[in-house]
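Hello Y.,

Per our agreement to keep a running log of every chain we model this quarter, I'm adding this entry. I've kept the format consistent with earlier entries: sequence first, then predicted structure.
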Amino acid sequence: MSPDQETSADPGRPDRPAGAERPLRAHARRNREKLVAAARAAFTAADDTVPLDGIARAAGVGIGTLYRHFPTREALVEAVYAAELDDVTASASALLDELPPERALRAWMERYAAFVATKRSMLNTLHSGWASGRLATPATRERITAAIGTMLSRGARAGSLRGDVAPDDVTAMLLGVFLSTAADDEPERTERLLDLVVDALRPPGSS
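Predicted structure for the entry above:
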C-alpha cells in the first residue's frame, strides 16, 4: 500500500494513532499562512502582476501547494485583501490601548496608508472578481469608517479630538490624500498631508 493510500485509510483503524491527522492540518495551516504572508509582501513591493511561482518560492513551498490552497489568482488576492483589511481595522483598538487617541489616530493612518499601498497592485484582480461576482464585495469603507469613528469618539471624550466630525468625512479626506499621492515617489508628502488631516481634527485652540 502506498503512503498516499495509508493517509486516506479508514481513521477508525486500530493501528492508527488517535489524532494522527492533526499535525497535517497544522502543517497545511502554516503553509497557507506563509503563502498569504509572501503574497502580501509581493503585492506591496510590485507595481505589476506578481508571478504565482515567485510567491510559492518565497513561502518555501511548491506551486502545487499554492494551488491546493488557492486554486486561482483571485482566491489568493482575496485572502490577502481580507487579511489586510482585518489587520487594519483591528489595529485601531490595539493602538488606542497603547497611545493617546490623537496619536493612535495618526499611527493608524500610517497603517491604513500601507493597506492602500498593498491594495493598488491587486486592484485589477479585485475589480474583475467583484464585477463578475466571483468574489464577494467587502464592506471596506464601512469597516474603515467604523474604526475611525471609534478613535474619534475616544479623542472627543479625552478632549484631544473634535466631537463634531463625521467619521465618513475623515475617510473621504484620507482617500483624497492617498489618491493624490498615488503616483508620487515622495512618502514625505503623504506624511505631511496626514499631519494636516490630524491637525484639522484637533479642537480649536488646542496645541
